């Protein structure tokens, strides 16, 4: 198994993804203000985790990452639309995200709703470039359309957001908490791994295992977030330490104790790595992603 | 050319479309409240113009309408999501639509935003049933995904909505007005005709003509709306006569005079029918649709 420099891989491919996003948005024949509003939030930074996971999966199966760009861009557009709508006054009512004014603070609420709608819709247009520009088999294209719609819609991300809203101020069980995270953030992560593997013509069996990997990675990511809220350094995590406790939020540590949450984190990381080891991957990119999630300090 | 009873065709197929919509929404594995919110607006009635145009086009090319159901349902879901978002307080701030409370008045603003997002996303999931249940060629499926995303997104319906908002309170030219209607309502109508023809394996040339038919039908529909606002009977059109003038809205009659608008309406209807006559259609359904648009009293 080839050893790849994860940092280098992320840096190079992040740039590729961002250039591809910019190129696609710039080509739009649409009123300037909606293009500006879409661009504003797409350009607002972020780790580009979902597209990078997709491209890393492609490379892990020995495929050229470039064929993944349309789908990588699509999943990032969907993630971005969800942030724009989540920040609206009627949802979380946030004025800032990553240190920048939120979309509706700059463009107004109506335009923010429409910019989200536009990004969500445009993501499905961008996916069709797989067929025209990358000569991918249309049946694979339709599978990815279905997979993305399921991951993003009422049975996926939107369903998780609804469950999260419904659960506010209520006492949640561990299963409730898992349902919320598995859907609100987990389903798009799962999509990223599955889409990469699908484009690499992985077998049904391999894709099934990657779904499980995504499940463990997604929950590990969330548990680590909860732990950092207690133990992290404010400057590094970019928000006040202890905000979950202050907001009476149900978290893994509040349900399992801090030690219990740390054990659970290790369980999920180990399970993900064991599954990855059972696949014949060309390099250790996804193993490194698992370690990164467990050890990150922000 | 076979003569078909349009009223009968609409009645039977409206029921088919509504049953198909209900069946698809009912199967969702999602939190009850989001399914209820999606259903509420889908069940709120309406003429189902877009799905019926799609099925009428299929039958005009001699194909079984049933294969059009997934796409017909998808376009109706997109239309419905656009109404939910348009009614939001930050957009048109409407409390009622077709005599029923708007989505956000029943489910709250946050849930209405999410119900719209869910319907928009789910529409692309439903389209993929073409492949699995109706054995349609996946390349045709991908073409329809692209066509629907273009018609609904920033280059289509969303772009028209933005232009409409930007134009409020400004003096618009006839070209501005055409841009708004062509995009805000025209593009989904165009999609309906093009999708029906695409599923019927129509030629590029035929599809090009149907795009022009859709252009004329869409503008004729809008001009007739503007005329009814001046000459219609309040009980039939369901809103106060003269509301456009009272709201200082730029309309066809305000730009062309009432007589000029009536002439323009007839021009568009004639142009649409001439184009239809140049196609070898199996029946007169689409001709009847043109007459209906020109002669309707509500």
UniProtKB/TrEMBL annotation, chains A, B:
SUPFAM superfamilies: Terpenoid synthases (SSF48576)
Annotated Gene Ontology cellular component terms: cytoplasm
Leading EC class: transferase
Cofactor: Mg(2+)
PROSITE patterns linked to this entry: POLYPRENYL_SYNTHASE_1, POLYPRENYL_SYNTHASE_2
Keyword Magnesium: yes
UniProt keyword list: Isoprene biosynthesis, Magnesium, Metal-binding, Transferase
Catalytic activity as recorded in UniProt: isopentenyl diphosphate + (2E)-geranyl diphosphate = (2E,6E)-farnesyl diphosphate + diphosphate
Xref: Pfam families: polyprenyl_synt
EC numbers: 2.5.1.10
One BP annotation, GO: terpenoid biosynthetic process
One of the record's GO molecular function terms: metal ion binding
Family: Belongs to the FPP/GGPP synthase family.
NCBIfam families assigned: FPPsyn (NF045485)
Protein name: Farnesyl diphosphate synthase
């Amino acid at each position: 198994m080839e050893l790849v420099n994860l940092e280098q891989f992320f840096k190079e491919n992040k740039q590729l993804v961002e250039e591809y996003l910019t190129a696609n948005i710039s080509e739009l024949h649409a009123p300037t203000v909606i293009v500006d509003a879409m661009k504003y939030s797409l350009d607002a930074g972020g780790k580009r985790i979902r597209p990078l996971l997709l491209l890393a999966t492609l490379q892990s199966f020995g495929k050229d990452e470039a064929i993944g760009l349309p789908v990588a861009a699509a999943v990032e557009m969907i993630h971005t639309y969800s942030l724009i709508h989540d920040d609206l006054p009627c949802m979380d009512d946030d004025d800032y995200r990553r240190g920048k004014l939120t979309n509706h603070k700059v463009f107004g609420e109506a335009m923010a709703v429409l910019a989200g709608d536009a990004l969500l819709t445009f993501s499905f247009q961008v996916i069709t470039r797989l067929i025209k520009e990358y000569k991918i088999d249309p049946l694979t294209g339709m599978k990815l359309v279905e997979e993305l719609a399921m991951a993003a819609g009422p049975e996926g991300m939107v369903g998780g957001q609804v469950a999260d809203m419904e659960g506010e101020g209520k006492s949640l069980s561990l299963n409730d908490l898992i349902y919320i995270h598995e859907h609100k953030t987990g389903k798009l992560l799962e999509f990223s791994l599955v889409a990469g593997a699908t484009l690499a013509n992985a077998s049904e069996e391999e894709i099934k295992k990657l779904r499980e990997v995504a499940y463990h990675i997604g929950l590990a990511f969330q548990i680590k977030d909860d732990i950092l809220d207690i133990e992290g350094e404010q400057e590094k995590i970019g928000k006040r330490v202890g905000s979950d406790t202050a907001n009476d939020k149900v978290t893994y540590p509040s349900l399992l104790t801090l030690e219990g949450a740390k054990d659970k984190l290790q369980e999920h990381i180990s399970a993900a790595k064991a599954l990855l080891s059972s696949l014949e991957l060309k390099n250790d990119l996804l193993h490194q992603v698992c370690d990164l999630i467990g050890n990150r300090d922000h």
